């Protein structure tokens, strides 16, 4: 005779076997940096949050500030996929004079990531966000206090002013707004991108990224050639 406890144990074993089998088959979509890019439902949610996504004056902007196509990137400086994505974005920016990039600090990998995000936003106040961002992405190791000091020193930033800004509650609120925005969009991992009304998660190859950009241009009835007279005024 099978008792209640035996039934419970047997049920738990069956569930465990199913979970292991699904995980081995790659059917459990845990948010990892190696996760394949997944199209997510954007549409109305993106449109409802368009102002905060694309036009928030507090968010740093790279590429061409007057570009015709905007990529919004949610990233973490201690995310390996984000670091691999950085040179791909840089290459896309160099190849496309009409590309605008909005950076959303989304630290999800612990205290060092949050510290680095605050430092980057503090560097933005000294007009050096893009350069500082690049320094942290290229740092050979954990983006921590050491990386922050090295990046700030190489750019000649005012360290006292940087540290003071990092403690400003306004910067902490900005990071929390980004977290809330990501949550609204269903973003749970990094890197993640918003292009038009499309939300994508995971590392994108250059060809895939450029396909998304050109798809958005076609939707708008323009082309890359029509932006050839645009000159980037940002980095």
Q: How many β strands by DSSP?
A: 6
Tell me the overall shape: globular
Element pattern in H and E = HEHHEEHEHHHHHEEH
Give the terminus-to-terminus CA distance: 73 Å
Q: Mean pLDDT, rounded to whole units? A: 83
Strand content: 5-15%
Number of helices: 10
Characteristic key phrases:
235 residues; disordered N terminus; 6 strands; single chain; 10 helices; alpha+beta; disordered C terminus
Account of the protein in words:
By secondary structure, the chain is an alpha+beta fold. Helix content is 52%, strand content 12%. It has ten helices and six strands, in the order αβααββαβαααααββα. The protein has a six-stranded mixed beta sheet with strand order 1-6-5-3-4-2. Helix 5 runs antiparallel to helix 6, helix 5 (111-124) runs parallel beside helix 7 and helix 6 (129-138) crosses helix 7 (145-155).
């Amino acid at each position: 005779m099978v008792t209640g406890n035996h039934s419970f144990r047997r049920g738990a074993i069956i569930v465990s076997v199913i979970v292991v089998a699904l995980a081995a088959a790659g059917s459990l979509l845990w948010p990892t940096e190696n996760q394949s890019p997944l199209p997510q439902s954007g549409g109305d949610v993106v449109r409802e949050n368009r102002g905060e996504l694309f036009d928030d004056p507090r968010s740093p902007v790279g590429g061409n500030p007057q570009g015709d196509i905007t990529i919004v990137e949610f990233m973490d400086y201690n995310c390996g996929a984000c670091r691999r994505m950085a040179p791909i974005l840089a290459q896309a920016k160099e190849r496309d004079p009409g590309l605008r990039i909005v950076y959303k600090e989304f630290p999800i990998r612990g205290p060092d990531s949050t510290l680095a995000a605050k430092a980057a936003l503090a560097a933005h106040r000294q007009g050096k966000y893009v350069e500082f961002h690049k320094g942290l992405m290229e740092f050979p190791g954990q983006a921590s206090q050491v990386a922050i000091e090295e990046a700030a020193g190489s750019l000649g930033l005012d360290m006292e002013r940087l540290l003071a800004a990092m403690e400003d509650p306004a910067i902490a609120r900005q990071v929390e707004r980004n977290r809330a925005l990501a949550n609204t969009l269903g973003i749970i991992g990094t890197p993640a991108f918003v292009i038009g009304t499309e939300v994508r998660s995971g590392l994108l190859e250059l060809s895939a990224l450029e396909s998304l950009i050109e798809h958005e241009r076609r939707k708008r009835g323009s082309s890359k050639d029509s932006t050839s007279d645009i000159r980037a005024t940002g980095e």
